[in-house]
Amino acid sequence: MRIGATPEVVTNAAEPVVGWKIWRVEHDGGRTRLRSVLYGSLWPPGRPAVADCKKLYRLRHEAPDPLCECGIHLAKSLEQWRHYLSVGGDRVFGRAMVWGNRLEGELGWRAATAYPLALYVSATLDDAEAIAEGLSVYGVPVEIARAPAHVHEAVPA
């Protein structure tokens, strides 16, 4: 998901923003964790996810950087994540909050720091109940949701 054209830099924004996020879910019976869809970075329970740039052959820089695509991506609408919801069976979606350094575009934000606020597990996932129970480790509401026909229609089951 790209945040849209001409992002503005917001440095150390005092107010957090809330948007939509998609994660891969790692569930192996004894442990359930959220991971970044693209890079597989762990979202640790109980503490913020912190972005870093994973691009090879680039000078190291703080994320997010206006000249790069790095940072934690959050969408203003769940519709922006449609592709990621349709290409993998191990996806969960939800609302997340970002704060600190961030860039805003027409479609969403890229930020340095984030944490989930609410998680939705698709009822079509194998072990949906166990996954939802395992995600409770994040300390946020977790619901089973029916798979949306159109992503903007995602509704708790």
Task: Give an account of the 3D structure.
The chain is mostly beta strands. It has one domain. The chain has two helices and nine strands. Strands 1, 2, 3, 4, 5, 6, 7, 8 and 9 form a nine-stranded mixed β-sheet that branches. It starts with 7 loop residues before the first strand and ends with a strand. The C terminus is likely disordered.
Structure summary:
The protein is mostly beta strands and 157 residues long. 8% of the residues lie in helices and 44% in strands. It is globular, with a radius of gyration of 15 Å.
**Distance from first to last alpha carbon:** 26 Å
Provide the number of structural domains. 1
Structural class: mainly beta
Biggest β-sheet strands, sense, barrel: 9 strands, mixed
Total count of strands: 9
Calculate the mean pLDDT score and round it. 83
Compute the number of helices.
2
The oligomeric state is single chain
Radius of gyration: 15 Å
Q: What ranges have pLDDT less than 50 throughout 5 or more consecutive residues?
A: 149-157
Shape descriptor: globular
Query: How much of the residues is beta strand, in percent?
Result: 35-45%
Query: Residue share in helices?
Result: under 10%
SSE order in H/E notation? EEEEEHEEHEE
How does the SSE layout of this entry go?
Layout lengths: L7 E20 L4 E5 L5 E2 L5 E2 L21 E4 L6 H5 L4 E14 L3 E15 L5 H7 L7 E5 L8 E2 L1
Parallel strand pairs: 7-8
Antiparallel strand pairs: 1-2, 1-6, 2-3, 4-7, 5-7, 6-7, 8-9
